[in-house]
Amino acid sequence: MNTVVGSDDILLITLDTLRYDVACELAAAGRIPNLARHLPGGRWEERHAPGSFTYASHQAMFAGFLPTPVGQGPHPRLFAAEFGGSESTADGTFVFAESNLVAGLAAVGYRTVCIGGVGFFNRRGALGSVLPDLFEEAHWSPELGVTSPTSFAAQVDLAAQVVAGLPAERRLFLFVNVSALHQPNWFHAEGATADHGDTRETHAAALEYVDRHIARLFAAMSSRRRCFAIVCSDHGTTYGEDGYTGHRLGHPAVWTVPYAHFFLEGPR
């Protein structure tokens, strides 16, 4: 990352609540072609979430603790705060003196922008302001939130505006918290009604909806220069497995998440 930071733009997308098994099934079945073409080998990497719900997981990720590869570590990290004795800080790790990655990237000249999705980014109170307040520029509106059937399309539109309004020489760190997967997601399934409720199938339909728009986001972020992209889930969720529904609990469907990072090549 020491050769990336300061040279490339950086994009971090959290597909909030996306389950690993659903993500893998859709990639294998060809149902998310715009995402799958960027996944190394066309497959998601299996990782463990750093938290079981949005707030905890994002606090960890912004401190440099992205979802952890499965298997015994230590696993070298891409980003890390200065911390004595860290076993996962390697020679290639981008190490920052600040308490969080957002501030660390701002300190080396990046414009830091948050496009929020779920309630922890809505700035409607102190708790909903903690995460977006890390950024120099933060956006949230009901149109970007969990109750909007067109939330991700609106987030992509906003991201394109952010990129277009930035001076060409200024590096960008863009964070997008995608709310479409999070409950309620029933409206992404054709013919579904609120009475049907959210299911594993509507969760999958929400990911297909995201895939239909994500190519526009990738194109915007690579329109100025090469972009390093991280796409992952912050945690999964349950739909009745072992009697559980939801997340913020210790279940494999919650702790196991999809992850990928890759380069989006810039103009040639």
From TrEMBL:
InterPro entries reported in the protein's UniProt record: Alkaline_phosphatase_core_sf, STM4013-like, Sulfatase_N
Entry-linked Pfam families: Sulfatase (PF00884)
Organism: Rhodococcus oryzae
The protein's name in its UniProt record: Metalloenzyme domain-containing protein
Domain of life: Bacteria
Transmembrane segments: none
Domain spans labelled Sulfatase N-terminal: 9-251
